[in-house]
Design brief:
Length: about 525
């Protein structure tokens, strides 16, 4: 009974509420306050709700939000692309969550811009929202055509229309996708790499000339002397690359570096009709560091590949092989005058007279001792072929020790000429040092006094210093061999027993004398 009464009461209340603004009862049944944006409609439930037709609620939303309704109808913008036909607004926007509730629920960070019909790609994907969506305006009010945003960047000043995407892309505004091949001037070679403005000075791109000279008059080294048909010789890949058959027309084949230089390097007047010399010296006189000394046939040494990469077979052509340091000497060191009238000597002294430290004393055949790798290197001279073979320490002594004037001839061969300061005998034993000493060492000496002088040194005589007896050179003064001559002061007999002291005395000691048998 109670449930039936309650149902009847509810039906009566709803019928009453349908015909009147929201009253205390509707406020009582309201699930919560509406958002701040809808606060003024809170007392007019019928603005948003149709109690008799729940499906009509979306239509009521678009009655107020006419701009969104238009987007849904024309399928444009976010709502026109994101919502399927028949979708309810309440699927995304819920109400009665309080005044501060966010019924839009829009997250800029996670928002997929592609569902608006304007996909963010290229530079658009890195551009901040504020660059397109101006503050104070609704997001849906943004302009979507290229020209709306890029009007200031349009170098064509609108003369090519507003469909920028027909040529440009979103990766870079400066890069274009325009197919120039569909015009009457396909871009080939270097033309495909130049900026549009280099040829199209008019932003409308109309009336652009297609003749070469229209753009390349400044590049024309011929100054118009060859006519306007640049394509007869040049190509679009590289202006300096010419297909002109120089050998056939100019009777001068361009090889090596000649094929790489500009035409005006030889044809300086620009007029190709003016005859240009075909000899090396005609163009390279200024480059000839020889000053004409080697004649005008530069090709005998130089090649067309590289001017400094010279090669001359000196042995085959001049009959003089350049070896050692001769191969590194500058040509002008020997060829001081024109080669046609100056015959160079082929003997060493002819060039090296000033370098001859022997001052000609050794003759002109320097090669008998010296080599071409270096004047002072590997000097070869067989001293054993002279009258003074180098033995012992003499073989290690530098040449200038014995030959200070480097004349080499008439050098003294006696020992004292070099060893006078080393002679402890001060010349008292003569000049023949070799009679005692040998070349292996000054202190290595041997002398058989008994055999050489017939006076054997025995006893105290063997311990005496040489200069005790030899006070004058032995080859000048012959010493006596009798005792009395040296021991006259020691003879207490005053010569009474003669000069042969050895009859009583011995060489071991003067004392202890006795008559000897």
């Amino acid at each position: 009974m109670r449930s039936w009464a309650a149902a009847v009461l509810g039906t009566v209340l709803l019928g009453w509420a349908a015909a009147a603004p929201a009253g205390p009862l509707e406020r009582l049944l309201m699930p919560g306050d509406v958002a701040k944006a809808h606060a003024k409609l809170e007392d007019e439930c019928s603005k948003c709700h149709d109690r008799t037709d729940k499906d009509r609620q979306t239509a009521l939303c678009t009655d107020c939000h006419k701009d969104i309704g238009a987007d849904l109808q024309k399928k444009r913008g976010f709502h026109g692309h994101a919502l399927k036909p028949g979708a309810a607004c309440t699927a995304c926007h819920t109400e009665h969550k309080g005044r501060a509730a966010d019924i839009v629920r829009f997250d800029r960070e996670s928002f997929d811009h592609s569902i608006t019909g304007f996909k963010l790609d290229g530079r658009h994907s890195t551009t901040g929202c504020a660059a397109c969506h101006v503050a104070g305006k609704k997001l849906r009010e943004v302009q979507t055509t290229c020209f709306d945003c890029h009007q200031k960047q349009d170098i064509h000043q609108g003369k090519l229309g507003k469909d920028c995407a027909s040529c440009h892309n979103t990766t870079s505004f400066a890069k274009t996708d325009f197919d120039h091949a569909k015009t009457h001037f396909p871009l080939k070679g270097a033309h495909a790499r130049v900026a549009c403005a280099d040829c199209h000075h008019d932003p409308s791109y109309k009336n652009t000339p297609m003749e070469c000279v229209a753009c390349h008059a400044r590049d024309d080294a011929h100054k118009g002397a060859r006519g306007p048909k640049c394509g007869d010789c040049h190509n679009s890949e590289k202006w300096k690359s010419s297909s002109f058959d120089h050998e056939k027309v100019g009777h001068f084949r361009l090889n090596g570096a000649h094929a790489k230089i500009n035409c005006d390097a030889c044809h300086r007047s620009g007029d190709m009709k003016v005859k240009v010399p075909d000899k090396c010296a005609g163009c390279h006189a200024a480059d000839d560091r020889h000053g004409g000394r080697f004649g005008d046939d530069c090709g005998s040494c130089h090649t067309e590949q590289k001017w400094k990469d010279a090669h001359y077979d000196h042995e085959a052509k001049a009959h003089w092989a350049l070896k050692g340091k001769h191969a590194k000497v500058d040509c002008h060191t020997c060829h001081t005058g024109p080669v046609s009238g100056a015959k160079l000597p082929k003997d060493c002294a002819g060039c090296h007279k000033a370098d001859d430290v022997h001052h000609g004393s050794m003759g002109k055949e320097c090669g008998s001792c010296h080599v071409e790798t270096g004047w002072k290197e590997k000097v070869r001279f067989d001293h054993d072929m002279t009258r003074f073979p180098l033995v012992g320490l003499h073989a290690t002594v530098a040449c200038e020790e014995c030959h200070p004037n480097r004349a080499f001839r008439n050098t003294a061969r006696d020992c004292l000429s070099c060893h006078k300061v080393d002679d402890v005998h001060k010349g008292n034993l003569g000049k023949d040092c070799a009679s005692c000493h040998n070349p292996n060492g000054w202190k290595f000496w041997q002398f058989d006094h008994g055999k050489a002088t017939k006076f054997t040194l025995e006893g105290k005589h063997a311990k005496l210093d040489c200069k005790s007896c030899h006070v004058k050179p032995a080859d000048e003064v012959k010493l006596p061999t009798d005792c009395g001559t040296c021991h006259q002061r020691d003879d207490i007999h005053n010569g009474g027993f003669g000069r042969d002291c050895a009859r009583c005395h011995s060489s071991i000691s003067w004392r202890g004398a006795g008559v000897r048998q």
